[in-house]
Write a structure and sequence with these properties.
Elements (H helix, E strand, L loop, with lengths): L2 H38 L1 H10 L2 H16 L8 H17 L4 H19 L6 H11 L4 H15 L5 H19 L12
Helix pairs in contact: 1-2, 2-3, 3-6, 4-5, 5-7, 5-8, 6-7, 7-8
């Protein structure tokens, strides 16, 4: 075989290997995207939109998932669960006479429940990011309730807004109250 033929064969092999590597990379990336979409649901689209592109959005979500895996999220004891349910019932009954107080107490109770489950109590955006890994559907309720609470603090929330905040807090409260985490597929890097 001539040197020229060997060079051509080597070049063809190199090109084929490169094509297979690119196809493998694209397949793994598509698989990762699909798994993150399944795991984060509507939160996936929100983060990708916020970050401006899919790659950066997926990096943010993967970072959240990695951070979440290091947390020790624990189920509640039946006594703690009962206590939280009773306290929520009192907060809800407060709404009729004191909507603003009820929203403040609802926010505080959701935060206490998050802490009791093992979520760290940092700033709001970090709490929402941590919650989004296990509860990607209701985290938007948490954000909406928080936004209403902030408007309330500025004197810009109506009673109807406060009612919506309570509904939003309640949906997250119910999710957090569950002993088991939602069934979710693990995102792979």
């Amino acid at each position: 075989m001539e040197q020229h033929q060997v060079t051509i064969i080597v070049a063809i092999v190199v090109v084929v290997v490169a094509i297979v590597a690119v196809i493998g990379f694209l397949f793994m990336r598509k698989r990762r995207s699909k798994m993150l979409q399944e795991r984060f649901g509507p939160e996936y689209d929100r983060v990708v939109r916020k970050e401006g592109n899919v790659r950066r959005g997926e990096e943010v979500l993967q970072f959240r998932a990695t951070r979440r895996e290091k947390l020790q999220i624990v189920p509640l004891s039946s006594a703690a669960r009962s206590d939280f349910v009773n306290r929520w019932t009192r907060v809800q009954s407060l709404f009729v006479d004191d909507p603003k107080g009820a929203v403040s107490q609802g926010h505080k109770l959701v935060s206490e429940l998050m802490q009791a489950r093992g979520y760290p109590m940092g700033e709001f955006d970090q709490r929402a990011a941590d919650i989004s890994v296990d509860h990607p559907v209701v985290v938007e309720n948490y954000r909406a309730a928080h936004a209403i609470a902030l408007r309330h603090n500025r004197g810009q929330a109506s009673t109807e807004d406060l009612r919506k905040a309570m509904v939003h807090y309640r949906s997250l409260f119910d999710e957090l109250l569950n002993d088991s985490l939602p069934q979710r597929k693990e995102a792979q890097a």
